[in-house]
Here is the input.
Amino acid sequence: MTPGDATGGPTRTALVTGGTGGMGRVIAAKLAADGFDVAVAYFGTKDLADATVGEIAAQGRRGAAFAADVADEEAVSALFDAVEDHFENLDVVVHTAGINRSAALVDLDMTDFDAIHRVNVRGTFVVDQHAGRRVREGGSIVNISSHVVRVSPPELSAYTASKAAVDAVTRIFAKELRGRDITVNAVAPGPTATTAFLDSTPPEEQQQLASLSPLGRLGRPDDIAAVVSFLVGPAGRWVNGQVVYANGGVV
Here is the structure.
């Protein structure tokens, strides 16, 4: 008998890339709480990936971690093969993997530019390609963008350009999947209190960024996970081809 989800229906499977990061880890745990079995793709420390799988298991769901470079077509093809072999199906892909290097445009090392666009743009193309080929009817694809596309902060030109590309890919891809009953959306977080953000941002800058929101605080990873949960759940089926800003009202 196929195990069921929390609603008594058949089990659904989600793949979260960047599943060892603060945002990806919380999204993976939230999807598990929603009744998904969850595959975690990571590029880096296996111990962190195993910790995410442990959080999935704590929600009573199956989890597994797979190493993959999201910008490498062969590696991503092997990743999707492994997920399907392990879980038998795939219903949701949440692509959170990305990198950032800050510098003024005139000072930016082009090696950093190439690295940002390889992971953020090429990686989105590669993951979305395979998601579009593998996700079952009734499924969802969510790319993680950023509110920097709207606010255009200094010293983030390369990163902002890469996330603008993510937005464009998302809108076009939703149209290209016409007839498949698969939604494609992006979530654009504002400043979010992940461990990496808190460790790399001085307290005074954290306070300044928190003050930009009318709500007077930084975002939390669970704020973003809740938006993803909505988009991939039954209540979000009529939201498609959209970039959803989850930034506490920063304009």
Observations:
- The chain has a mean pLDDT of 94.
- Strands lie at 12-17, 36-42, 63-67, 92-95, 140-144, 183-189, 243-246.
